[in-house]
Amino acid sequence: MELDLKGKVVFVTGASSGIGLASAELFAQEGCFVIAGYRSNANAAGALLKRIKAGGGDGMLVRIDLRNLESIRKCVAAIVARVSLIYSVIFNAGANKLTAFEEIEEAEWDNILSVNLKGHFFLMQAIAPHIMPGGSAVFVSSITGQMGAPGHVHYAAAKAGIINLSKSAAKRYAPSIRVNCVAPGVTLTPMGKEAVKKSDPNYANKMLLSRRLAEPVEVAKVIVFLASSAASFIYGATIDVNGGRELR
Prior knowledge:
Distance between the termini: 27 Å
Strand content: 15-25%
Number of domains: 1
Helix content: 40-55%
Number of helices: 9
Shape: globular
Mean pLDDT: 95
Largest sheet: 7 strands, parallel
CATH class: Alpha Beta
Number of strands: 7
Structural class: alpha/beta
CATH topology: Rossmann fold
């Protein structure tokens, strides 16, 4: 199966770790010019770019804080100053905090919603005019956005919003831009490992048909597929990558 990604420009937010990092590496392997977005982990993002260039690829780093609209605008301006058009944008960056339903305060709620939902909307709004016709966007949601999670309800609510945001964007920008979404289950990212450690170390054996947690690259493969022309007839879909936790 041909993905036809060689030479394409792809922007991945949250590229310094986890699913974003795995996605950036796969896009580089496919010959893409990778724009790696990060907020605070400049060392990890720099190491990623160094590996990409050592492997014969190319790319650039951009700092973006999804909680800050000016940061979003500056990020987009930096990208379009370097490249004329973007083929695909991967809306992956996120943050989570395990807090009981009754203990969440306004500042924490606003912070989690800003990073996981509000910022993605305003990034899509700003960057859509720079996505080439025939290009794509992939949003990263979560199984918690489908099932709910009282231990981090703000994160679950934001991820539910991401699913609807992706559908709304798909309707707004079709057929020029294909917009889709992935909903991973618990994945072996720093965020995922912390969540399992604090809740139930035997979660995978108890709840997943796979009997194991996902590796970030397993989610990244689905993201790369959806971004590519191999998924040319998929619009507005949400693909579950959850090891059989929720069958729909």
